[in-house]
């Protein structure tokens, strides 16, 4: 059995979660499940690190949009790190580019959200 767990790094009342190379139909349930569990734990800040992601299909986008809605409802600041053009284009083509705060590095994302409630 393949372990599809996403790598998490805890930060002050938050987490950085590393996405896999491909965020698609095969990983969407794991994305939703794991990120929802983190939100249930009362995180105030969640950085979804897609630095290593080179492909994101509509299933992956829908999972991330569901997480975004859940984060908003729970008062959690959610940002994405999307440095790769192919991933940025997927968000743009789906009209999801305006739904997320996106940064080109984890450092930028952490700096931008440092004023968020901790």
UniProtKB/TrEMBL annotation:
Can you give the residue ranges of the STAS domain? 16-113
Q: Which domain of life is it from?
A: Bacteria
Protein name according to UniProt: STAS domain-containing protein
Originating organism: Salinactinospora qingdaonensis
